[in-house]
Amino acid sequence: MLNTVGIAESSLWTRADAMKVHADDPTATMPAISYDFPVMNEDYWIWDTWPLRDIHGQVVSFQGWTVIFALVADRSKYGWSNRNDGARIAYFYSRGGLNWVFGGHLLKDGANPRSWEWSGCTIMAPGTANSVEVFFTSVNQTPPQSVPAQCKGYIYADDTGVRFEGFDEVTDLFEADGLYYADYTENNFWDFRDPHVFINPEDGKTYVLFEGNVAMDRGTVPVGKDEIGPVPPETVTPDGARYTAAAIGIARATNEARTEWKMLPPLVTAFGVNDQTERPHVVFQDGLTYLFTISHHSTYAEGLDGPDGVYGFVSENGIFGPYEPLNSSGLVLGNPSSQPYQAYSHYVMTNGLVTSFIDTVPSSDPTVFRYGGTLAPTVKLELVGHRSFVTEVKGYGYIPPQIEWLTEATADLF
Ligand code: FRU
User: Fold this and answer.
1) E-strand spans in 141-205?
2) 160 labelled as ligand-binding?
3) Domain boundaries, given as residue ranges, for the chain
4) Is the shortest distance between the CB of 118 and ligand 1 below 6 Å?
5) Cα–Cα distance between 91 and 71 in angstroms, integer?
6) pLDDT band (50, 70, 90) for residue 5
7) Is 71's C-beta closer than 6 angstroms to any atom of ligand 1?
8) Which atom of ligand 1 is found nearest the CA of 83?
């Protein structure tokens, strides 16, 4: 069925699908992280992380340096639990993608017109060979605002390291429209953030994925048969399920500068299933489109359960779907139930490597925890049709480069 803008309607992650989610499935569980994990940086809490990449998703080596970006907060001013009160984007660089040197904040002080810098992506951009664009979420506490935004600058590197210039002017891109995506007046628990920009190989156009909620006045609509799906007899859908309504959003760039966007209906919705599908991103492999997103145990709808981790959906018909949950359930890599909050904010790269940050790891005495705020061991996923398998554990924070920027071989991608 086609809707008014002529593309397939949103695919549903149903309650029936989510009933197939089981923690500790060995093929979809992140191996336990050791209590003795190393800390990447003593001065900053580090959480959501993404690599410098090209617009097709390949991790870039710029003059021999790999670069990553992460949300950081000063450990001397903020605790792990209130780190969002100091959230800024910082960059780190490395030869080979293992030992990361802190480079500094990416945006100039005062460039962001709002309080905090939340997640997004950083890509090599058209312009000069060292043009870089960051798309991030510009967040304000009062009044509540969460605005996908863009900021541009340049990367420079020499034998001693990497630095960025520019990044002093922020352009807002779009806001929740209240039509496809809930705005604050409809849902004061609304999520609208985490832009991930890419070129769709099918039509060559530039799109952005983002986290949203289904547009409706929160809690006023009962969860319907379609969202429940084919469930066993006597299955009860608790009334409170109507308060959860995550959506994986998409918009198309309508100008070359990627400052103007047309909102499109969500790709996947989870009304009655889960309230958050964060940091959505995409991997194109073997003619299939894999859509990944992170979600929490705590954001599942009443009556459902699942681990914190990365979830996925697969389409055989390109970016607009229809999508099916990967592994039938949607669960791709959950935390083990022995360490349910060990890691979060997984990001799946096009080579199947998955980075995430360490949140909280219990000691042998389960009442004693260690906070992370540093990168988790990278794990390797194999994507096989509609299934995924975890196959390897690599080093802590291992994010190797995939292409040299800018060689003759990569110049035509640019
Ligand atoms: C995921 C997340 C993102 C958000 C950031 C804020 O861990 O909730 O959706 O941009 O963290 O810290």
Assistant:
1) 145-158, 161-172, 193-199
2) no
3) 11-225+240-404
4) yes
5) 9
6) very low
7) yes
8) 12
Ligand 1 close to Cβ of residue 88 (< 6 A) = no
The answer to whether residue 172 is catalytic is: no
CB atoms within 10 A of CB 296: 16
- pLDDT for 411 equals 59
Count of alpha carbons within 13 angstroms of residue 196, beta-carbon side = 26
CB contact at 8 A, 381 and 352: yes
**Considering 17, 191, 227, 278, which one is annotated as catalytic?**
278
Q: Residue 339 is encoded by which pair of tokens?
A: 């360490």
190 is in an annotated binding site: no
The CA–CA distances, whole Å, from 13 to 205, 210, 410 equal 26, 17, 37
Q: What would the mean pLDDT of 110-123 be, rounded to a whole number?
A: 98
pLDDT at 4: 39
**Cβ neighbours of residue 81 closer than 8 Å, sequence gap 6 or more:** none
Q: Is 342 annotated as a binding residue?
A: no
Using DSSP bridges, classify how beta strands 353-362 and 377-384 pair: parallel, antiparallel or unpaired.
Answer: antiparallel
Does the C-beta of 83 come closer than 6 Å to ligand 1? no
**pTM of the predicted structure, to 2 decimals:** 0.96
CATH class of the region 11-225+240-404: mainly beta
